[in-house]
């Protein structure tokens, strides 16, 4: 399980910073803006009507030129749709268009020329069918003049345009369309629930990590009381299955995660998504199994304490054997039906279980390691969300999180909630790394507080958890201010979390202890252990004689 936890940490690091809401307004500084051609690129809904009945809805992108498209459906007038003749609309239409929307194909002349000719023919708008399935930004050339265009122009992907064309050729009834570009709500409930989910996951994982550490200390104290010689180190891995991160591994996590992210970006395809689904299911099964066994062992103590040897797996408790089939079936059913509307619930359950389990197993031993880990992740996040645009012409992190070049809604290493009150639909997402990496530091703070028997107010956990929640909240504020463009969440989370811990530690005079030792000073109260810890009197006297000589 420890190896799986490390692999899960790498996968989470690769998708740190993938907090996104979906792009509706596209700011593009590379596309020239000139008078009469300075609109933002906005997604536009094209609602079709056949014989007075509501038909299919399509999505296109508005042009740089022309008037701004209305944002409310009530304000959008229903206009008749007419197929252009000639189809490319690079010459005046043979028939006058009495106030309808003209459907044309892309090619053979400029977008602006098509719009001017359509407006001169009396059209109230123009829909241009792209030559491919992607959305293309319609711009003006720098030397263009006379751009006083008064009708909206919308580019449709090829499949949507062909569907509208089929309606015109196959139906004797009138076909009409409505064009409008609704605004997103200022705050969507999905972001609120996603924030609660992320913060709640960190709190639960931190509590479990601190509880496990306290159980280990209690067990050790019992052994000391009985006269057994044991080490005071309780978080050093070994048979306990706990993995402590050091400075080198903290830096290597980010290096390996970068390589993994590039591999995801270059190999992103249907078969690679299937591979990621398999990996996620394996990690999710182990995480869900570990969480369920930990919870159910409180009631089924005999089943949790009885073990049987299983080939290739070693000793496994009867409770684990009883829970495992359910976890496997749960993950397999999600993998099969993951594109169904409510599959996100199962994905979030598996993801949360995996994150909680990893935080319980992989631990930050002190603030020094935690600072190196989060600082590297901070730089990594900024580079792959923002700087990578100049190298790859798009944000690599966001492209991977969206699952570009596939039919999926995104890679599975994400928590997501559907935007229920958003007219555009879609999902609000957050990468595992934005929860797991800061969660390791918050869990360290809680273990430190419990080891030092500190109260909530006098400890570090409450303040670090609050700082994490505040940083994540600011991420969503920035997400809305940037019109849904993906944000590097660690850009906001890391300064708040690390800054709070370091400031409190410096103010209380415990920063050195937090930074290097990672645990408060403890005085051993067991006389038996003190006798074992001291050297024998004869040996001590011999040492004194040697030192005096």
UniProtKB/TrEMBL annotation:
Protein's UniProt keywords contain Manganese: no
Principal location listed in the UniProt entry: membrane
UniProt-annotated location(s): Endosome membrane
Domain of life from the UniProt record: Eukaryota
Residue ranges occupied by any PA domain in the UniProt entry: 82-164
Keyword Nucleotidyltransferase set for record: no
Membrane topology qualifier: Multi-pass membrane protein
Signal peptide location: 1-21
GO cellular-component term (any): Golgi-associated vesicle membrane
Membrane spanning stretches: 192-210, 245-265, 271-300, 312-336, 342-362, 369-387, 424-446, 458-477, 489-506
Family affiliation: Belongs to the peptidase A22B family.
Protein name (record): PA domain-containing protein
